[in-house]
Amino acid sequence: MDYFLSEEQLMIKDLARQIAVEKVVPVREELDEKEEFPWEIMKALAQSDLFGLFIPEQYGGLGKGAFELALAVEELSKACVGVATTYAANALGTYPLLLFGTDEQKKKYLPDIAAGKKLVAFGLTEANAGSDAGGIQTTARADGDHYVLNGTKQWITNGGEAEIYTVIAITDKTRGARGASAFVVEKGTPGFSFGKKERKMGIRASATRELVFEDCKIPKANIIAREGMGFIVAMKTLDNSRAGVGAQGVGVAQGAIDEALKFARQRVQFGHPIISFQAIQHMLADMATETEAARALVYAAARYIDSGAKDVTRASAMAKLFATDVAMRVTTNAVQVMGGSGYMKEYPVEKMMRDAKILQIYEGTNQIQRNVIAQALIKESAAASKGK
Fold it and tell me: Looking at domain 121-229, what is its CATH homologous superfamily?
């Protein structure tokens, strides 16, 4: 379908596709096998200015938004979700600064982020705080001109590789979720270390580690927004980033369709290419239709975010939910279309299926997205009833 992209948006899409085809596809199997962080690809993205896509021009970026970021993420995800996750998680970690940072903080950090000189990570999840963000136990205690952080963050994408971390910690335990605050912590700060690199089912090129804070002292100037705003910072960040997870879903689904189509044209059974069989045609038709519907929803949600609308929570959650559920179905069916070959590591759909699973889990499980959507519907319905 034609989504009426501008010339500039088409250029962004083409550039990301070129990097995906030339830099990612040749090494994706090796990166997955060796669980190797894709530094060379990140350098290529930096040289192409794609790290600065969503960062304002005044801080060295291109001044685009969630929609252009989604276009780039989609193209990278067609080739490798692990690489795309590394790139997209950088945006996730940057959003707290973009949305709530002071001008001084933005001037200090955003130019290097836009240039791809420093990667960013977002530290929210803990052993007892994932979907339940109110369960955060990492603390930040005020001490003169500093805060002292103690605690552990779990399963942090880009952990150990990133130079800049936006971290949610509790500054007032008596206030529950409203006692959380957001901070910038730089790699190399005394008392800040990392756990082992996690081994994962999929997105194995992406680095996932614990963040460990042991009397980690950071300046008070490193607080984002103000004390007690941490939960809002985290939720608004996820509202802005979830369309990007949806774009990952669209990308990996499209990549799987492309591989299944290519295989079905070549594989001969009973004297005919299997693409001539109606059973295969119907599977491919459903895969293509669902993926196009997911793309339309993700694009609409990203554009809605960029419109400056006050409440994008429902749209963002819908895009993430639908597109990533589609990704899991489509990649699974791509393996089915390809039969035994699809199950072999020799073909990329095996990896695509493994990679797709995490999209239903991170940045809020799809069960949580359904809760978010339902709560928005209830709220809107109550408001409409009062209006009558």
Answer: Butyryl-CoA Dehydrogenase, subunit A, domain 2 (2.40.110.10)
